[in-house]
Amino acid sequence: MLSVLALEGLPEIPAGADLASLVVERLPEPLRDDEVLVVAHKAVSKAEGRTRRLEDVVPGERARALALPFGKDPRHVQVVLDETRELIRAERGVLICVTRHGFVCANAGVDASNVDAGDTLVLLPLDPDRSARALRARLRELTGAAPAVVITDSFGRAWRHGQVDVALGIAGLAPLEDWRGKPDSVGREMRATWIALADEVASAADLARGKDTRQPVVLIRGLGRHVSAEDGPGASALIRPEAEDMFR
User: Fold this and answer.
1) Is the residue at 245 inside a domain?
2) pTM of the predicted model as reported, rounded to 2 decimal places
3) Which of 88, 106, 124 is the last residue of a domain?
4) Has residue 248 got a pLDDT over 90?
């Protein structure tokens, strides 16, 4: 059985906050090694000081040119460009970017939702896998238990409406479950079944919390067979190499 519980009562996260301590204080029961703690990236980014105030941003010529047709704030566009390794497409006010991490997403993950200060943007963590490992280590230090940690964000999907949460950073959870080469239920060899386990965990967690209820942390039980003592390869294992990308 899978149990998915959103933690209540987490405050607004300031820069420099001990996020692990805030989480531990609000756990209904002691942590276990076979659990998974799923954390929305905004909580991590805020604690790490990964924010930009628009009043501190000076937009360049490219940002102004991209902002003008869509009536966007060129300072916001400049922040997106600062977080972008490659701009793939700009259309209908959305910039499809490759981030410094290799994620392909809208606006390089830069977002203003769920931020108290109206002129502040939240960026993705510099290294989400490192952030997940650090949070896991701090939880172990505080509680003696080392649950897996998954840091998430909402991404859109080509050809489908809506967003789903995906894994940006992982520590202690297998990012993928490979069934290729194994027999299916009637004995045929599976050739393409390669499950993005961490992304499914991220989306399961998102079902348990509201987008407007300040519940950035979700505790999942029942996935112990996928949790490892080692931190593992992280979410970078989920990124398809550009040489294998058929759509870019």
Assistant:
1) no
2) 0.95
3) 124
4) no
**Can you tell me the distance from the alpha carbon of 210 to that of 213, in angstroms, rounded to the nearest whole number?**
5
Q: Name residue, tokens 């238990």.
A: 145
Looking at the fold, whether 136 and 224 belong to one and the same domain comes out as yes
Mean pLDDT of 72-80: 96
Residue whose structure tokens are 């108290």: 116
Q: Are the beta carbons of 220 and 31 closer than 8 angstroms?
A: no
Nearest alpha-carbon partner for 5 in 204, 197, 164, 140: 204
SS3 224: helix
CA-nearest of 197, 194, 193 to 228 is 197
**Each residue of 130-186: pLDDT tens digit?**
999 999 999 999 999 999 999 999 999 888 999 999 999 999 999 999 888 899 888
Rg (alpha carbons) of the chain, rounded to whole number? 19
The string of DSSP letters for 63-95 reads HHHHHGGGT--HHHHHHHHHTEEEEEEEETTEE
